[in-house]
Amino acid sequence: DVVQEVCPFRRRALSTVAKSGDNRKSKGLFGWLASVLEGPDELRVERAKTMLDFIEVQARLDYTQGCGVKQDRFRSQFGLEMLHLWIVKLNLVQLDRAEGAKMFAEVCEQVWARAEPRLYDAGINSFMLSKNMKDLQQWTFGSMTAYDQAILTLQNTEEERDFIGSLWRNVYDCDQEAQPLQVATLADYTIEQIQHLQGFDQDAMFQTQFNFLEPPTQPTREGKDMNLDDYGEPVVVAGEDSKRVQFRWSGEYPVGP
What we know:
Blueprint: H1 2-6, H2 28-38, H3 41-59, H4 74-95, H5 97-121, H6 129-157, H7 161-170, H8 180-197, H9 202-206, E1 235-236, E2 244-245
Antiparallel strand pairs: 1-2
């Protein structure tokens, strides 16, 4: 099956992340019993921090040469980090859907904890931090929803258009200077990373005892006829009342290093 060779996921809804039952503020007998059955929260928190450290190191390697990502822009750099988190998330929930969802939720908590000082250091006014953090969270989950839907389309139909488009919108921010072959190269790299991580067992994934492939140093495609303007469709934003809407950054968002 060609589709399975391109993206050999188990055919189940990887795109749906179960709601975490983890609540550190639970009280009473049932809360205590749940914490005993789930295991210590502290262990998950420490593992989440280690996992995010590893993801950040990988995403801060050079993706300019082969993929043309402008990493001096906050949105593109943060977009790379969230793309790698999404890659890891797919494999976590494939190995154990419930525990994978809890680990993903904990890593996201660490993301938000680190994002606020990054925004402040980048020059965001303290009065605008709350708004920008809300925008950042909305965009992050919206981009991952777009990736989820696009990868399932690729798996089921071999049509890569939606996937390339989701990367162009969410990592490149619809950059008109982006070269089509470089965006397609990032798409190839992402699929290769997903396949690569499928070679690690559950203990390795949850304890961050895995490794990533190196970023490409040059485009991996040749002669691809592609007009990126055709890929600028609206992003799907997560939520019960989700609609296909175009997400726009606040005018206060930093574009420098």
